[in-house]
Structures are given as C-alpha cells and as structure tokens.
Amino acid sequence: MTTKGKVLIIDDDPDFVEVVRTALETDDFKVFSAADGSQGLALMRQEKPDLVFLDVMMAHPTEGVDVSEAMMEDPDLRDIRVVMITAITDTQYVGDFPTDRYLHVDQFLTKPVPLSELLELTNRILKKK
Fold it and tell me: How far apart are CA 4 and CA 27, in angstroms?
C-alpha cells in the first residue's frame, strides 16, 4: 500500500488523537502520535513526518510553542509542515501565548475541528511538499 505521507499528532488528549488517527489512516496516511512535546520531537527525528498536528497546551500552556521553536532551531526538523491546534478559548490563557515571536506554523485550528476539514487540509498541505 502506498501512503500519501507521514503525519505525527502531538496531543495529550488520547480521544482526539484516536479520532484523527482513524480518519487519516482511512485516507491512506501513515500516522504516529506522541502525548507530549519531548516525545514528539524524538519521534520526529526518528520517523521524519511530512506534517505535524501540534497541540498548543499540554503539560504547560505553551508546550506546543516550545516544540515549534525547537523545530525551527533544528535543521533536520525545520522543513516539516506544522498545523497548530488549540482548545484555548478561555481568556485566562491568552497572556501565556507569545504574540511577539515567530512560530514555525503553517496554520492554526481551533478544537473541535471537523474531520472533513482536517482531511482536506492534510491533503492540501502534503500535495505542496
């Protein structure tokens, strides 16, 4: 079976990961997942995904931002496409989110994300690689 590409989901919500994994694998993507940023960075170096879906808030409110910055600093990871996903809608976290730094992100999505939108976006981004 030929896959359309490798996708890594870095998110601490196992239900979200499983739903997205199932949808993407059905559409012929090879999917990996990590529950936190450090595990995600290690898996990126091992599997070299084409696209990363990256949660903003995991162990701390800006863990996804930290992963994005680490990717930019690593020549082996900086070309990987990133879609940052967040459930942050509460203004209590807005002050934690850095608005003055460049983020290695192709697009932002807010949870809940319709699966049809995730599939369309994944196909569109990976078609450009």
Answer: 8
Digit-coded pLDDT (tens) for 12-43: 999 999 999 999 998 889 999 999 999 999 99
Instruction: Please name the CATH architecture into which domain 6-127 falls.
Output: 3-Layer(aba) Sandwich (3.40)
Cα–chain-centroid distance for residue 2?
22
How far apart are alpha carbons 122 and 129 in whole angstroms?
11
**Domain boundaries along the sequence of the chain:** 6-127
Give the model confidence (pLDDT) of 56-110 as tens digits. Answer: 888 887 789 899 999 999 999 999 999 999 876 554 444 455 555 666 788 888 8
Strand partners, 84: 54, 108
Q: What gap in Å lies between CA 39 and CA 17, rounded to an integer?
A: 14
List CB contacts of 47: < 8 A, sequence separation 6 or more.
Answer: 6, 8, 32
- pTM equals 0.87
